[in-house]
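Tutorial handout. Part one gives the primary structure; part two gives the three-dimensional structure as tokens.
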Amino acid sequence: MRAWREGWPVPASPQASLDLTARAFHALWGRGHSTLGGVTLVAVSERVLQETAKVHPHLSAVVVGPEGMRFGALDPVAVGVDPGRLEESLVFLVEQWLCILGALTGEVLSSALGESLLGERDPAAASRTEAEPERSR
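Part two.
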């Protein structure tokens, strides 16, 4: 996640941080789903979110569903969180998710997930709206 974020400007607002994280999870979820399926990803995501929220309580507003993590409910909470702390917590969430999936798959999926995430650096990918996740659901 940190390699993916490297070289990007600091998000201008909490909503920009949430949008960026939603994009990352959208790419990762799509790749992970094709290998592990929705039930496994939901179970892993719920567990990661539960543990991450112990360190970053504001993340308890994130919702996990069959299509991935939804960050829309975090919008009103995020404006009250220090921007640096918000960014760090979102990076931590993604890194923990990747770590657990790596351990679960014996690191077999880690490379493919990393490639999916880095593929989202494409400027054309940033302008896509049709396949983008909706944070508000």
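Part three, for discussion. DSSP finds seven helices and two strands in the chain. The first strand starts at residue 63 and ends at 65.
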